[in-house]
Amino acid sequence: xxxxxxxxxxxxxxxxxxxxxxxxxxxxxxxxxxxxxxxxxxxxxxxxxxxxxxxxxxxxxxxxxxxxxxxxxxxxxxxxxxxxxxxxxxxxxxxxxxxxxxxxxxxxxxxxxxxxxxxx
Length: 120
Fold this sequence. Notes:
Order of helices and strands: HHHHHH
Helix content: over 70%
Distance between the termini: 70 Å
Mean pLDDT: 77
């Protein structure tokens, strides 16, 4: 599922694949497949927008290169955002916790020592 999010033509709820869209634009689908794709596009706003946008491209020979470039760019952006999220999370600093624990133990021991010396 994560790879689907990195695909510019993917749709979480859609059933049309990127390959099917590209075949439609290259006129490589049968009439039945074209009709099925168009009927799905009417029901799904994402697929309808994808078809409309792809049909407006002037240079259809470079369509796969454009889509691949968009997919690469999308993957880079998604991976950068996930790296930033990882860096922004607080990391556990065990040395800090251990130092605080030792400090508290020393304070308690000093208190007990002073308390016994004052009230024998």
